[in-house]
Design brief:
alpha+beta; eight-stranded mixed sheet; two-stranded antiparallel sheet; 12 strands; cytoplasm; NUDIX_hydrolase-like_dom_sf; hydrolase; NDP_pyrophosphatase; EC 3.6.1.45
Length: 215
């Protein structure tokens, strides 16, 4: 995953996922312009394996994160991947996916992503909605719906890893409760904001009750 080569930046001309736009409007009598990008909404799922009390998370290489960490590369610049290793762009995330399937509910999309990315077979009834929020409100504004689901080892039916035919390269990782507490505040790790929200919710709403049952 971290072996990145021949990384260079070019202007965006066409995309299946992003559409850049400009909007003109008047606010409180003042004419304004705003540049933004439209993209599809997505779902995120925090998975907790109750067989061993571990979180099921994923790691991916994110080019945008990599480029931000490199910082020295501009449009048309080829990045020296020997100086800037691919690990700079690897993120720890929730299982997630775009809401791009017609005639499927958000829960059905989340169910499919859990199977594809993490290899667990769950029911839509296993999903508990945590919250819904907006992404990159100054640039995108799309919706993210965050769910929680508990799984067991018996529900593990494949290795996951995403769909190879869609170019996905995903590593499934297991994180203990203690490791997750540290991960929330570990700024040395590239973590996405939805993961932090979900973990904070878990430790506030779920874990106290589990600790009570154990004692």
């Amino acid at each position: 995953m971290e072996v990145i080569q021949e990384f260079h930046v070019v202007p965006l001309t066409q995309s299946n996922y992003l559409v850049p736009k400009s909007v003109y409007f008047t606010q409180n009598g003042k004419k304004r312009r705003w540049d933004f990008v439209t993209e599809q909404s997505d779902v995120n799922v925090l998975l907790f394996n109750t067989s061993r009390n571990v979180f099921i998370l994923v790691k991916q290489f994110r080019p945008a994160v990599y480029l931000y960490n490199v910082k020295s590369a501009g449009s048309g610049v080829k990045v020296n991947t020997e100086v800037f290793p691919g690990s700079l762009g690897v993120t720890v995330e929730l299982c997630a996916g775009l809401v791009d399937k017609e005639n499927k509910s958000l829960e059905e999309v989340a169910q499919a992503e859990v199977l594809e990315e993490c290899g667990y077979s769950i029911s839509v009834n296993d999903l508990q909605k945590i919250t819904k929020c907006r992404n990159s409100i100054g640039l995108v504004g799309s919706e993210t719906t965050v769910y929680y689901a508990e799984v067991t080892d018996e529900q593990k039916v494949s290795s996951g890893g995403g769909l190879a035919e869609e170019g996905e390269l995903i590593e499934v990782i297991e994180v203990t409760v203690d490791e997750a507490r540290k991960l929330i505040y570990d700024e040395a790790v590239n973590r996405e904001s939805g993961l932090l929200v979900a973990l904070l919710w878990f430790f506030n709403k779920v874990w106290p009750h589990k600790c009570g049952r154990e004692h």
